[in-house]
Amino acid sequence: DPSHSTCLTDACVRVASKILEALDVETDPCQDFYQYSCGGWIKRNPLPNGRSKWSTFNSIWDQNQAIMKHLLENATFNSSSEAERKTQRYYLSCLKEQRIEDLGSQPLMELIDKIGGWNITGSWNQTSFMEVLKMVSGTYRATPFFTVYVGADSKSSNSNVIQVDQSGLFLPSRDYYLNKTANERVLAAYLDYMVELGTLLGGAPEPTRLQMQQVLDFETQLANITVPQAERRDDEKIYHKMSIAELQALAPAIDWLDYLSYALAPLELADTEPVVVYGDTYLQQVSDLINGTDRSILNNYLIWNLVQKTASSLDQRFETAQERLLETLYGTRK
Asked: What ranges make up the beta strands (E) of the chain?
């Protein structure tokens, strides 16, 4: 309304109040603008336990989580949406703590057996690399070696395109693997975590430690060929559009048409389908690394990706192991 220069609706008043609360008006903005604009927020919002950072977005997320919790725990919830009913069943299954404790590691062990076994815990299918890769990343959405997704083409935003990028490291960045002196404590905690989960799933302690060290060494090799984020800021330089057939020639260790058809089913793909690759040199090197690595190490690495993706759904022993690692990584307790 041009006749009014100030918005006095309820929504505007609430937003203005939030902004005023965030200010520290006792500070001269010309001397310390950050303190002036954020001092009130910092004073009213001490860092909660278990958090390494806290912002308005974290606060809004928590509020939304509380709303969803209320909806999902509503006993009279009777939605006509099958997706919403599935969501509630999934949520309530997580609250059956005694059932989860009784099952222990059994659900994951059965899943590992279903997709061909794990060298750390028993016999495994030595000829099933592609099948295990498809299951681990296509079905269960872990990201060994690389990540695949469909999104807007950055050079033609009115269309979606398959995109492939580097991936495969568990620790937050490649520096944790490559700067071993500075990160000795984190690497030791990570190896202990790997060994603990391997033994919880049936592996013998010493052989498990030996094989998990091989997996960690393999991840270090991946870190060596992973391009640092500082070198990936220019989209023009890392954007490479090619066909699946050209991707196959670039990284022949993977059957790309078979993999992408499985991961993106029910899409019907041909080898002429365009793909945007954001790490052509990386994929070429990872293909060479796969071809030059013992199949038992590849199997251990693939199943480890599945284990770390799903372990948080298991009993308290797995949750406690994860909390110890996160405390070493981020200094936070749950």
From this structure: 146-153, 156-166, 240-243, 274-277
Residue (of 296, 298, 306) closest to 218 by Cα position: 298
For residue 172, report the phi and psi dihedrals to the nearest 5 degrees: -60, -30
Residue type, 145: F
Residue 331: predicted pLDDT: 83
Ranges under pLDDT 50 in the chain:
none
Q: What pTM, to 2 d.p., does this model score?
A: 0.83
Residues 53-90: b if buried by 16+ CB within 10 A, e if exposed: eeeeeeeeeeeeeeeeeeebeeeeeeeeeeeeeebeee
Amino acid 53: pLDDT: 86
> Sheet holding 274-277: strands in order across?
146-153, 156-166, 274-277, 240-243
d(CA 162, CA 170): 24
Pick the CATH number of 103-330 from 1.10.1380.10, 2.40.50.140, 3.40.50.450, 3.20.10.10: 1.10.1380.10
Strand, coil or helix: 80: coil
Sorted by where each begins, the domain ranges of the chain are 103-330
Percent pLDDT > 70 in the chain is: 99
- How many whole angstroms separate alpha carbon 32 and alpha carbon 209? 52
Cα–Cα dist 287/182, whole Å: 30
